[in-house]
Write a structure and sequence with these properties.
about 190 residues, seven-stranded antiparallel beta sheet, two-stranded antiparallel ribbon, 3 helices, 9 strands, elongated, plasmid, TonB-dependent receptor
Length: about 190
């Protein structure tokens, strides 16, 4: 399966600022980039019907597991969105986002992030992502994790008309590392 958001690479501008608030630090990052675009290579490819049915079931598991669902009903699939760095943009809208984090020094950092950008040529369809992350570092333990939710707009056919529908995904990861011992020394 494709990741929720691939590695983002884009061209734009960013600003970062760090504020000292008591013993904590507040990190603020904001950016504006060319943004994502529709993936054109998948439109040109010929893919057999079995692959399309499997892809529709993966992206809409509720419909594929429901015994009352007709085979004739429309299943929603996620649109293909490309996140590659280019010096041009396929629409007039720019993507924007940022991250706000608080570091309770010396060992914990909690942050939230946001991303939004139009990806189609007419600037009608957006992709949005919200995330919450945590980093905990101590002498013998490091724990990192993130929860992310994406909403991708797409045109679907409903009552013989094309309407915009929002398709959502979410996921998380949690990673822990335990250090057995420190056998090195840094001298400056």
């Amino acid at each position: 399966m494709d990741p929720m958001l691939p590695i983002l690479s884009d061209i734009g501008i960013a600003a970062q600022q760090v504020y000292q608030v008591g013993s904590a630090k507040v990190f603020l990052d904001v950016f504006m980039t060319n943004g994502p675009s529709s993936e054109t290579s998948h439109d040109e490819e010929e893919v057999d019907d079995d692959h399309n049915i499997a892809l529709a079931r993966l992206s809409s598991p509720a419909n594929s597991l429901d015994p009352d669902t007709d085979g004739d009903e429309h299943t929603e699939t996620f649109p293909e969105v490309e996140f590659e760095a280019t010096s041009s943009d396929n629409n007039s809208n720019k993507a924007f986002g940022g991250r706000l984090a608080v570091a309770l020094l010396p060992s914990i950092e909690i942050g939230t992030s946001y991303y939004q950008g139009a990806y189609d040529e007419n600037s009608q369809l957006d992709i949005k992502a919200n995330g919450v992350d945590i980093n905990f570092i101590s002498t013998h333990l490091m724990v990192r994790g993130e929860y992310i939710r994406t909403k991708t707009e797409a045109f679907i056919e409903q009552d013989h008309e094309e309407v915009v529908n929002s398709l959502s995904r979410n996921g998380l990861f949690l990673q822990g590392t335990f250090f057995i011992g420190h056998h090195y020394q840094w001298d400056w």
